Amino acid sequence: MTPLLQGVRILEVGSIVLGPYAGQILADLGAEVIKVEPLQGDFARESHPRGTRSDGALFVNNNRNKRALAIDLKRQEGRAAFARLLARSDVLLHNMRADAAEHLGLTCDAATRVNPRIIHCAALGYGQGGRYRERPAYDDIIQAASGIAALAAGPDGAPAFVPTILADKVTALHVVHGILAALLARARGFAGAIAIEVPMFETMVGFLMNEHLAGATFARQGATGYPRILAADRRPFRTADGWIAVLPYTAEQWRRFLEVIGRADVCEQSWFQDARVRQSRVDELYAIAAAALPRAATDEWIAALSARDIPCSRVNSLEDLLRDGHLADVGFFHVDPSYPDDIARALRQPIRFSGIEPCWDRPPPALGADSRAVLQQCGLEPAEIDALIEDGVVKVGEEPGKS
Q1: Are 363 and 340 in contact (CB under 8 A)?
Q2: Which one of 31, 215, 224, 283 is most buried, counting C-beta atoms within 10 A?
């Protein structure tokens, strides 16, 4: 954790990945992120697999450096206690449907009645100005709606989901930069409330069409699709003993690559020497690479190509990443001492800052671990908190510890 956002309090009413991943990034940057959960907890706590002393891995990897408040916002007493906390906070972030947010009193209008300077961020499935605004949305649904699944189609043409929670995580990154921009505006003197809407569908369409708007950028009937990305032979290439990714990008890189594989003759072709024509025929270059690379082993190609500064990489499996030398060098999977002893690896914030000393990461909190402390900090008396706990409005828990 890097204490850059110290003094900023963020209420994250989030679940699964989108809201929690955004909240975790902000917590990694030093904000006080209070994870507000229903009494049964974030569904991700029950995700498979689980540790012997910890919640599900999906929860563990999206909720470090946070505090946890378990409270029933469906009850008036819970909403009243939450309002006390909201009045003392800087940001309210949620990733629920608009009707659910309204039912729980989490809309921007409701929040600004309590705190006129709140930054309100709603991560939704679809923008509220469009006809899809009431549709439910999860990562798979947005991958399909945004065109991702169609682009990932296999040789048989059947659409496929990218095997990562892509839409949630990309949208979460937009949530983070939206909130950071709003915090900066407020620091520079903007005095009112700021409402941020981050819709998954529009976010992913923009993310995908960045390069694939292509010819449609210039003509109403222009063709979509960036040719280099859609080239049939743009893929990992088979070697004598495995797979390799190679990406000569500039003309000089292509020349060096073609020399390495014994096809320097291609460099003499007029179409290769003209940059625009070469780019239009990149699929032919990829086909030449695909035909040549099976002649030697992966390590041989890595050595030969790296010596000539040609971008390349072996194709790692998930298991390979656990043994990767570079990741070991930077301590990427290091586990801080405060983590429960059933956690063998953790993920760190990949961004590094010089000039400011980082702090130890805090492990993901147990359900309700900070309920009492958080409510005390927002002005509730101990007797009031006890009454909320006794009435089943608030749940308290303990931080996971060492066995």
Answers
A1: yes
A2: 31
User: Average pLDDT in the 14-28 region?
Assistant: 97
Note the pLDDT of residue 120. Answer: 98
- The domain segmentation of the chain, as residue ranges, is 9-208+330-395, 237-314
Average pLDDT, the chain: 95
Pairing of strands 243-246, 237-238: antiparallel
From CA 384, how far away is CA 271, in angstroms rounded? 78
Strands 91-94 and 9-13: parallel
The phi, psi pair for 389, rounded to 5°, reads -70, -45
Closest CA relative to residue 325, chosen from 336, 313, 337, 335:
313
CA distances from 205 to 47, 143, 173, 362 (A): 29, 9, 15, 35
Say whether 237-314 and 9-208+330-395 share the same fold: no
Residue 267 CB contacts under 8 Å (≥ 6 apart), including other chains: 254, 255, 258, 259, 273
Place of tokens 């892509």: 166
Name all contacts of 320-327 with Cβ < 8 Å and 24+ positions apart.
Answer: none
| Model-wide pTM > 0.90 | yes
Closest CA to 236 of 151, 323, 321, 301: 301
| Domain formed by 9-208+330-395, architecture | 3-Layer(aba) Sandwich (3.40)
Q: How confident is residue 318, by pLDDT bands cut at 50, 70 and 90?
A: very high
What's the average model confidence in pLDDT over 177-205?
97
Q: What does the alpha-carbon distance between residue 313 and residue 247 come to, in Å, rounded to a whole number?
A: 9
Q: Which position has the token pair 């953790």?
A: 346
Q: How confident is the model at residue 276 (pLDDT cuts 50, 70, 90)?
A: confident
Confidence check: pLDDT of 70 > 60 = yes
Share of the chain above pLDDT 90, in %: 94
C-alpha to C-alpha distance for 34 and 32, rounded to whole angstroms: 6
Q: Is the pLDDT confidence value at 280 over 90?
A: no
Sign, CA dihedral 95-97-102-103, equals negative
